[in-house]
């Protein structure tokens, strides 16, 4: 995608052939800063501190972290240390484990002198695979948007609500939930996006709105609690979100607040779709509410907010009284019964065990519980 006319991805290998460049998403939307990652430790910290975030991008960053580790020490012990360090960085997004498993599967059979180069090659392949997957998601999701247009009056926009950031900043390029929106916009459809602010880190207000603005897509930022009201008044035609993990039976784990949007959509007859690459499907998990670990992050994310003052300074202020306890659950789980469909690189799939297994038989068979068909 483009930033001020210049093409960017969210992560890349720098011109020296080994340093990893990434957009520091903590600084957006007020500052556009490129971070340089030069070690596995820095890659793990980038994931942990949300310099990079979004399930597909976390996976790509972890792959790059392994490559950085192999450049310094390509021994078996170093490979296992890198794996352990990176997988501990974020517990919820399954793409992290998938990418690390791919890297270990590629590197473990090789002699140590051959591992560094192979690691960069495989990390690059994972990035390119993500881009291709997201483009396919966009093509399949576009049909859902196109189907709405005949029902609109001339000049009326197709209104899409999204939650958190599942745009190109959450992937290597294109995004998941935003890929159909970008294709619709580029194809001349009149689309408008309701952008949930997405407390506590405001990824919608800070990142999704920034993306859409730079691409020229009409959008409006709303408070998280506004979506139900808009649906009641016929102001939302379609909900599309991303996800950090989907279970074998179609439960969707995504940024906290997604479940409430799904309930409101169900109550008002608004289609609720989830866009995801297949590595996000965890065929070893069948009950999202009980089995998916929900990350609890630091209290400061809720207790403080960062923004730009009228004088142009970037400052962080406290909004919670001193001494008040804070809970910060980062994700929630939307049961499959509330999901209209899953937009994948292989088409729109029913959020149901058999449908997912048939769409991705190679992944279902390789799971630890491969008897789900």
Quick take:
This protein has 373 residues and is α/β, with parallel strands linked by helices. The protein has helices at residues 40-48, 55-72, 76-87, 94-107, 115-146, 179-186, 203-215, 227-232, 258-268, 288-291, 300-303, 353-359, 361-366; strands spanning 2-3, 6-7, 11-13, 20-23, 34-37, 158-162, 191-196, 218-222, 238-241, 245-247, 252-255, 272-275, 281-282, 304-308, 314-318, 331-334, 341-344, 347-349. It contains 13 helices and 18 strands.
Could you give the topology of this structure?
Elements: E1 2-3, E2 6-7, E3 11-13, E4 20-23, E5 34-37, H1 40-48, H2 55-72, H3 76-87, H4 94-107, H5 115-146, E6 158-162, H6 179-186, E7 191-196, H7 203-215, E8 218-222, H8 227-232, E9 238-241, E10 245-247, E11 252-255, H9 258-268, E12 272-275, E13 281-282, H10 288-291, H11 300-303, E14 304-308, E15 314-318, E16 331-334, E17 341-344, E18 347-349, H12 353-359, H13 361-366
Parallel strand pairs: 6-7, 6-9, 7-8, 9-12, 10-13, 12-17
Antiparallel strand pairs: 1-2, 3-4, 4-5, 10-11, 11-16, 14-15, 17-18
GO biological process, one term: L-methionine salvage from methylthioadenosine
Active site: 244 (proton donor)
Family: Belongs to the EIF-2B alpha/beta/delta subunits family. MtnA subfamily.
